[in-house]
Amino acid sequence: MSEQATPYDKPVPALTGLHGEFYAWCRDRELRFQRCTGCGRYRHVPRDICAHCSSMEWEWVRSSGRGTVFTWTDVVRALHPAFAAATPYAPVIVEMEEGVRLLSRVVDCTPDELQIGMPVEVDFQQVSDALTLPVFRRASVAR
């Protein structure tokens, strides 16, 4: 697991409702997404109703943890003071094998090493006793 050496001083997500459930799975080192039991589609961010078939029935399903870099942006000047010391950094959108996209970061490469389509695998960064964030590393083996 990626360990946090210094106190985490950045904004954190609310750990209530369905978002709290998502992050509870992450705390257990499992990446899970909602899957509609009506039409079978995965969704993220967590929500009560399926955008495709309007079903209110769903389940949490474990992700493969594998995806590819869909896009990213280079942040060289932080727009929030808590991120100033972290620049430059590159928030990435990872397209997961399940079809959902997740905003995160790739922790084992610099922004100039990122590539569209680069295979990545989930890892977890514990930032407090209550919060563990999903992050990504370059995939260790070709798929």
From TrEMBL:
Domain ChsH2 rubredoxin-like zinc ribbon: 26-56
InterPro entries named in the record: ChsH2_C (IPR002878), ChsH2_Znr (IPR022002), NA-bd_OB-fold (IPR012340), Thioester_dehydratase-like (IPR052513)
High-level lineage: Bacteria, Pseudomonadati, Pseudomonadota, Betaproteobacteria, Rhodocyclales
Every ChsH2 C-terminal OB-fold domain range: 60-125
Name assigned to this protein: Zn-ribbon domain-containing OB-fold protein
Pfam families (UniProt xref): OB_ChsH2_C, zf-ChsH2
SUPFAM superfamilies assigned to the protein according to its UniProt record, in alphabetical order: Nucleic acid-binding proteins
